[in-house]
Amino acid sequence: MRDIFTWALIESTIRLATPLVLAALGGLFSERSGVINIALEGKMLAGAFTAAAVTYAADVRLGMGTASPWLGLLGGMIAGLFIAAIYAVSCIKFKADQVVSGAAINILMLGIPGFLSGALFLSSGSTPQLPKDHLLPQSPYVIALAIGVLVFVIWYVLYKTPFGLRLRSVGEKPEAADAAGVSVSRLRYSGVLLAGVLAGMGGAYLSIGQSSLFTRNMTAGRGFIALAALIFGKWRPVQTMLACLLFGLTEAVSIQMQGTEFGQEIPVQFINMVPYVLTIIVLAGFIGTSRPPRALGIPYQKEK
Amino acid sequence: MPKFARELLFPLIAVVAAFIVGGILILIIGDNPIEAYRLLLGSALSWPDGIGYTLFHATPLIFTGLAVLVGFRCGLFNIGAEGQLYIAAFATAWVGITFANRSAWLLVPLCFLAAILVGGLWGAIPGILKARFGSHEVINTIMLNFIALYLISYLTQYHYRVPGDPILQTSPIGEGAHIPRFGAFIPGFPERIPLNVAFLLALLCCLLVYLFLWRTKWGYEIRATGSNPTAAEYGGISVRKQIVLAMAVSGALAGMVGINEVLGYRYRYYDGFSDNYGFTGIAVALLGRNHPVGVILAALLFAVLQHGGIYVDGFSEHVTKDIVQVLQGIIILFVAAESFFKWSLGRFGFRRLRA
Questions:
Q1: What is the mean pLDDT of residues A64-72?
Q2: ipTM of the complex, rounded to two decimals
Q3: Which structural domain, as residue segments, surrounds residue B16?
Q4: B interface mutation test: which of A101, A108, A225 has the most B CBs within 10 A?
């Protein structure tokens, strides 16, 4: 037991929680505006692949050195934005079923990175290895600070600005917001696009922060864990961040347990299950109530 | 236009549009789209391998397509077919291992029962959660997918693996549990092709699902719940009961994938066997317009792509088998945004077609 709960565990928790926090906070913007976001997984994959590919190009082809991961991060954000734009147009303009389009994006993004890497790098789904000193910062202090600032900014935007108030109102009662002169579709576009940028960032941190290349399906369900954290955090920024830290901790514990005596006693699969089981319990209302935004998932049809 | 032609029109447009977008993507990465599509689609009609493997790949997709269809007809979105088919496949193998020495007459029905019951039970959980607590089945089925995967990975790794086996799979099931492959009764059809009687079972299920949904009181109540739950409730239908029933039937259908996989193909539980069957089932149901006949057609299309993917991988310069997933994603996106086509058709003057 003692060899597991160490300072290193806390550091690793922060690192592992970072992509989750970014994606979950992205999902928060989208869902608070009334658009379900099961496509977080696909957006993270888009961000992760693009970030690694851009970093590689900037580093190896253009010789940009330590600036290259930042260009990669930007690339990841743009990729997330692009995928989110497709999702937004289909859900908002064409009023497609949000869950169906989200599932489509996820399936599409399982294929696209492999499809492109075959052409760009002649590989079967991964990018070349990046130099270890040309990655995003990994110091837990730096990331913790960045995450703290981000959560504060998002909390402030959501609760203290007119934009945040309108965004929330569109997710709760779009008819009322519409009657008050707020453009429902414009706010939903902003919510979904912001989600794309943040999920793209989260994906980028996976490929050029936590590791040093993109591998096939490297998110491995993290987009869904982020979605779970958003629900577990009751669609609020601070609670969502805490949920991500909790889920990051379970991942960190399951990694550290491998090969230890503790790992023999409790199979790692049961630790891995924790986020999903907790989410079901919370959603069912056994621990407090987790109520989704009222208009979540319903396309808004302006009255004629 | 007759009704069935209208029903065929939009799926057809969606597929063609997806192939055009896919073709552009292939051009961008520097390959010849016609050549790639010839590889992708051309291999499916060869006898016996092409046809045999295509029908084999279609089998799980018919089951999962039906599973998603039954959910949709009740207004539910079952994203959990993946978890349901995994846990059911494990249960099938468990019965086949535990009662290995029994005669085939007992063992095969027991294994079938395991697949159907365990799939149905796993599917019923999100149904009960929705009926009892109102929590959304989409989230719960996603969560249950992961829980199922970890649970059986634990069971396989710690309890049912042959000691020393480097592959995460269980020990083999008893020979009495094997179900016949087509090679056993079609002359000239090699037994190495894993197409088995589960394919006939899948076709039978299409008929049964049709009869159940459109010819029984239960099916009527499920469809009534799906089209207008409030009206159904006023009409004396217990919406909660229908939700649980539909999810259980849906899970049982997904669970039957285990019959094809364990009893007809690998004769053991093999961890990670599903090639996204549960998620492809969503595409199959949507493209098949949530009708059993449509499900068969859509499952065949995706099976052709899946089989052709191997040839694309091997014989084209840049295009990999990932093109299959890309096409699949674009097809669902187009089917989901059906109003996009109505909108664009309208812009180009085909107003009559706007329904």
A1: 88
A2: 0.89
A3: 3-353
A4: A108
